[in-house]
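Its record is retained below.
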Amino acid sequence: MRCSGDIQLYEDVMNGMRRQFLLTLAVLPALAPMALAQDRRDHERARVALEAGEIRPLAELLGDVERRFHGRVIEADLDRDDGQWLYEFKILPPNGRMFVIEVDAATGALLRSRGQVQTRP
C-alpha cells in the first residue's frame, strides 16, 4: 500500500521532468541557426587550412584510412589541437564494434586510437 506522501513526491518529480522537457523543446528552434552557423565556420576553417597547405584533402585521407583499417568510416571531424590539425574518424568494422582513430591532417600519420582497432594486413 502506498502512502499519499509517495504519490505526491512522484507527481512532483514528474511535473519537474515535464517542465524540463517542455523548456528543452522551446529552446531547440533557437539553437538550430547557431548550429548551422558553426557548421559554416567549420567548413570555412577547413577550406582555408586546405588552401594554405596545412591539411590534406579529406578524400585522400579517407582513402588512406579505408586501405589501412577494416570497416567503414561513419563519421569524420576536423579539429585543431595545440596548433596541430587532426582528423578524428569513427570506423564501424564488420564485427560491429566501432573504434576511433585520430590522424594528423597534414601527414595522415596515426596519432591515437580508441577501441579495438582492426588493421588490414
Q: What stands out?
A: The CA atoms of residues 16 and 22 lie 10 Å apart.
